[in-house]
Structure formats: structure tokens, C-alpha cells
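Field log, afternoon session.

UNIT: design team B
ACTIVITY: writing a sequence onto a fixed backbone
BACKBONE:
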């Protein structure tokens, strides 16, 4: 006679991973931690390590990257752990603008020049520089014009850069040579009044009668 015993081998226990790195928030994509292997153990397969896989949500500011380590044992049991990496630049750019300047005439006010602004950012290689406005204080001699540029990174962090332009004419008009001094006998012999030409560095040229 004989008897039989049926022994069923069926592994229903998933692999177990070591603790993943803690969730982390970084400013720039270049600051995302390097990929590391993570150790797993399995009741039947023993132990080993596996690299994670990164999946982005495709967004920006913030972007969320889910780094997942997965191991499937010989019986199809899946062990998995994840780390969430948030990429979010919250740091403003820095910039140096054109130096403040004083000019004589309104026509001497320098042209707007975005290349005169030197900008840098912790994440964005080339922050966008834009002209915002010229605002006069409404005065004259001097008039002060506040020129504003904006500097914006890829995440919308923005600063303003100010240049003060002072318009102040300190140069007097210059007259043409007056007629030579003259001596006459009678009041009726006084020469007729004539206009005399003047030129000015800001106002141009004109004529004016003596008095």
C-alpha cells in the first residue's frame, strides 16, 4: 500500500524594501538627488538591490517627481516604495542695472537698453529682462526720470531694477558778438535796436531784442 502527501509551494509574500530616502523639495532640476539603488529582501528570493525609476507629473513650478523602487519576486509578488521629489524655484533673480546718470537736455536721455541689465538666477540660465516704464517726477531743472526694468526667471519670480536719470541743464546760452561800443553826438543818432542771435545746448537757437 502507499499513501501520498501533496506539498504546495506558493509564495504569497511580497518583497520588502529598506526605507526609501525622505521626501525632499529642491529649487532646481539640477538639484534633484542622484539616483540610488535600494535594497530589498524576500522570504524566498533572498536579497538584492534595484535602481529606482523617476516619473514626472509634467508640470513646472512646482514639478513633482515620483521616484519608485520596485522588485517582483519569482512568484509575481511585487514590493514597491516611493520617494516624492518636488522641484520648485522660489528664489528671485538678482540683477545689476545701468548706473544712475545726469544729462543736460531731455534729448540726451539714454535710449532704453535691456542689455544694460546684467541678470542671473539660481535655476534659470537666462532670466528675461524687460523694460517696464519711464516715469518723470514732473519737475524741471532738475527733472528726475525713474526708469524701471523687470527681471523674471522661468518660475515667474521677478524683481525690478531702477535707474535714475536726472535732466539738469547747467549751461548758459551763448550769444553772438554784440555790436561794437559806439559814441554818438545826439540821442537821435543812437543805432536802431537789433535782434541778437543766441544758441543753447538744450533749447537750440533764436533771436532776442536788446533792452
Amino acid at each position: 500500500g502507499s499513501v501520498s502527501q501533496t506539498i504546495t509551494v506558493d509564495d504569497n509574500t511580497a518583497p520588502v524594501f529598506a526605507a526609501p530616502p525622505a521626501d525632499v523639495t529642491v529649487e532646481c532640476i539640477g538639484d534633484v538627488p542622484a539616483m540610488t539603488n535600494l535594497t530589498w529582501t524576500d522570504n524566498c528570493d533572498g536579497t538584492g538591490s534595484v535602481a529606482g525609476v523617476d516619473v514626472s507629473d509634467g508640470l513646472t513650478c512646482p514639478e513633482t517627481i515620483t521616484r519608485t523602487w520596485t522588485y517582483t519576486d519569482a512568484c509575481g509578488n511585487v514590493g514597491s516604495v516611493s520617494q516624492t521629489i518636488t522641484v520648485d524655484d522660489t528664489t528671485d533673480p538678482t540683477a545689476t542695472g545701468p548706473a544712475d546718470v545726469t544729462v543736460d537736455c531731455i534729448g540726451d536721455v539714454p535710449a532704453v537698453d535691456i542689455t544694460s541689465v546684467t541678470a542671473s538666477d539660481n535655476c534659470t540660465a537666462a532670466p528675461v529682462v524687460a523694460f517696464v516704464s519711464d516715469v518723470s517726477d514732473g519737475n524741471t531743472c532738475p527733472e528726475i526720470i525713474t526708469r524701471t526694468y523687470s527681471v523674471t526667471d522661468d518660475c515667474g519670480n521677478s524683481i525690478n531694477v531702477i535707474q535714475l536719470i536726472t535732466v539738469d541743464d547747467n549751461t548758459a546760452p551763448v550769444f553772438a558778438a554784440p555790436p561794437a561800443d559806439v559814441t554818438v553826438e545826439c540821442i537821435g543818432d543812437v543805432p536802431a535796436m537789433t535782434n541778437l542771435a543766441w544758441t543753447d545746448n538744450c533749447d537750440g537757437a533764436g533771436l532776442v531784442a536788446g533792452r
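LOG NOTE: The mean pLDDT is 94.
NEXT ACTIVITY: expression trials, pending approval
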